[in-house]
Design a protein that fits this description.
- The chain is mostly helical and 243 residues long.
- The chain has a domain of 149 residues: Orthogonal Bundle (Helix Hairpins), CATH 1.10.287.1490.
- It has four helices and four strands, in the order αααββαββ.
- Strands 2-1-4-3 form a four-stranded mixed sheet.
- The longest helix is centred in the middle third of the chain and has 84 residues.
- The radius of gyration is 41 Å and the shape is rod-shaped.
- The chain starts with 5 loop residues before the first helix and ends in a 7-residue tail after the last strand.
- The mean pLDDT is 93.
- The structure holds zinc ion.
- Zinc ion binds next to loops.
């Protein structure tokens, strides 16, 4: 059986893990991007919805005003007819009764006129609001499309980087002893791309728990893989002092 040089294998694993760390963060970024896009889209859609509601409100108000204007025209017509009728009346009693009626219709008419004026004001306010909203929506649309392009091109970039790293990984993997590799691969799955960790100042850099002196000695002996008792990662002592 071929003897395995642990120190050399650790160095290979360090290289492999560098690739895995990059792959991990790229994959996470790739997963995040569509979510960012969705969020931007829903923000933009919300503003579009507000614009739509305001447009509908404005249309409804216009219809209501047209209706009131129709009612006003009827009242004006009524007044004319009643006034014409005044000349046909014989008695003072009939005359004053009709005058009262005319005044009543005139009151209705001026109420309608007030309502219509208010509606004009309301419509002016709405129109200004709509113009502002239209500008906002247009800006948002521009921003959204710009962001979308950026995100899509970043995703393409990420995909290319991932493909490149995966082929590098396949090469780096072949270098590692099969048994050690399978241990490494098993650990890395559950540990967010950190299967191999340094021991710095007697503590594991994966879980920051103290590594007992006996374990440190075992690592230094370099004859088998040593695992952190707390987080189960592979421990190693870097050649260079780490700051
Ligand atoms: Zn640990």
């Amino acid at each position: 059986m071929q003897t395995v040089n642990i120190a050399t294998e650790i160095k290979k694993l360090v290289k492999l893990q560098e690739i895995d760390t990059q792959l991990y963060s790229l994959n996470r970024e790739k997963e995040e991007k569509p979510k960012i896009l969705e969020r931007l889209q829903s923000e933009f859609e919300q503003k579009k919805q507000i614009l739509k509601e305001n447009e509908e409100k404005s249309k409804a108000l216009l219809l209501k005003r047209k209706d009131k204007e129709g009612q006003l025209a009827v009242k004006e017509e009524d007044i004319k007819k009643l006034q014409a009728k005044l000349y046909t009346l014989k008695t003072n009693k009939e005359y004053s009764a009709l005058l009262t009626e005319i005044n009543g219709v005139k009151m209705d008419k001026s109420l309608l006129e007030e309502e219509i004026l208010k509606m004009f004001d309301e419509q002016d306010g709405l129109r200004q609001e709509l113009e502002k909203l239209q500008i906002v929506v247009k800006e948002e649309e521009g921003k959204f499309n710009e962001e979308k392009q950026k995100i899509l091109s970043r995703v393409k970039e990420i995909e290319a980087q991932i493909a490149d790293l995966e082929s590098k990984r396949a090469v780096a993997e072949k270098e590692v002893d099969a048994r050690i590799l399978s241990q490494y691969n098993r650990i890395i799955k559950g540990k967010e791309s950190l299967a191999l960790v340094k021991v710095v100042n007697d503590s594991c850099q994966g879980c920051y728990m103290n590594v007992p002196p006996q374990v440190i000695n075992e690592i230094k002996m370099n004859d088998k893989l040593i695992f952190c008792e707390m987080c189960a990662r592979i421990l190693y002592i870097p050649d260079e002092p780490t700051t």
